[in-house]
Amino acid sequence: MLGLFTLVVLTSSYLVNVSSANSNTPSWAKTTPYGHERKTVLQFYFHDIVTGDPPSNALIAQPKDANQSASMPFGSLFMMDDALTVSPDPSSMLVGRAQGFFGSATQEESSLIMGMSFGFVDGVYNGSTVVILGRNSIMNPIRELPVVGGTGVFRMARGYAIAQTYSFNLTSLNAIVGYNVTIFHP
Ligand SMILES: *[C@@H]1O[C@H](CO)[C@@H](O)[C@H](O)[C@H]1NC(C)=O
Ligand SMILES: *[C@@H]1O[C@H](CO)[C@@H](O)[C@H](O)[C@H]1NC(C)=O
Ligand SMILES: *[C@@H]1O[C@H](CO)[C@@H](O)[C@H](O)[C@H]1NC(C)=O
Ligand SMILES: *[C@@H]1O[C@H](CO)[C@@H](O)[C@H](O)[C@H]1NC(C)=O
Description:
The chain is mainly beta. 12% of the residues lie in helices and 49% in strands.
């Protein structure tokens, strides 16, 4: 009898937690129970502005013998602080910023090593981060990058990010990239 009562109490408090988490979830996120954890899928757009005023990335290091006729010579390392918004429109609501580095890490094709923190500023995710580290083969239409950790709501996170270029301007080199990030976290 006591066992059944405990089960009912646990179940109802669990339901309350889940529904309150859902009601606070911003429009660009979807969170569902996943065993003892939660599965959260975030969807947003990343704006890399190379020729903006100011630009959102900066070349910070390059080998002495860099091939200057290549658009991103092997060994070039950049630091970025890119806006993340709810839609591809750069003036749409800011959900966070992607801060980190990317470098040209292959001699043959255009592929990057990318390490960044997605720091969110919206709703329940304000102040929480998701950390990404991995290879980004920017010439492939769809890329997968590993989620290696997080903080705040996303403490102990693991998961993956799917990146798909939404637009790339060959003149300005500015890019808008759609990100769908699937995260498993407590
Ligand atoms: C330098 O880069 C250009 C453009 O990608 C390429 O055609 C050329 O072969 C490269 N030169 C060397 C020495 O790698
Ligand atoms: C996010 O948190 C910061 C620091 O606590 C606060 O100043 C800001 O108003 C918050 N933003 C939103 C949208 O809640
Ligand atoms: C691409 O960038 C160039 C240079 O900034 C700009 O003049 C042009 O309008 C852009 N094209 C598109 C389709 O946005
Ligand atoms: C991202 O998620 C949206 C909504 O579920 C979907 O329409 C889109 O195809 C996804 N993009 C990728 C690259 O998976």
